[in-house]
Design brief:
Helices cover 57% and strands 3% of the residues. The protein has 9 helices and 2 strands. A two-stranded antiparallel ribbon has the order 1-2. Strand 1 and strand 2 form a beta hairpin. It is globular and about 45 Å long.
Length: 189
Amino acid sequence: MKKNLKYLSYVIQHRFWVGYYCFKERLIWRGIFHDLSKFLPDEWIAYANYFYGKDAEEHWKRRREGKGYYKPYNTGDQKFDFCWLLHQKRNDHHWQWWVLPEDDGGLFALPMKKRAIIEMICDWRGAGRAQGYKDNTPEWYAKNKKHQKMHHLTRQFLENKLINIYGMDAMKNALTPVLDDDNFDKEEL
């Protein structure tokens, strides 16, 4: 029961902060409905067990890999990995929602809708705040960018929006090009 109350506290804080940032961006409905799927039993149980169950401390340590990189897949917990997949595919503010697996094993990224990109930024900001950090989105993005498969138009809009929010100085470490993106036309450089 204790893990469920801890998880409920986190989800409420997270939704509050995401709502706060969404409202500032005039995304009222997205702020209100953000991450409601986390209350579904197939997400709730796995999340509560993973983050607040008996092995939670080990999961947090492994998940961050000591480098600040958020690794939400192949965690060693199949129930959590499946729940994370469900969450991504239910919520279009996750960049993974827009990635199609190809028959040859590759991945193809579609351009995200602007509202979804802005909610994604609000989600990143809200997650950090709910975990007790200051708004560290520029640093977090710099560490995680290379692991995010995005269409080049998505990345361009995302980074322009981040510059608009934080300024160029705060974003300078995160703005190095990602040239390994298969959907990015290197000839455009």
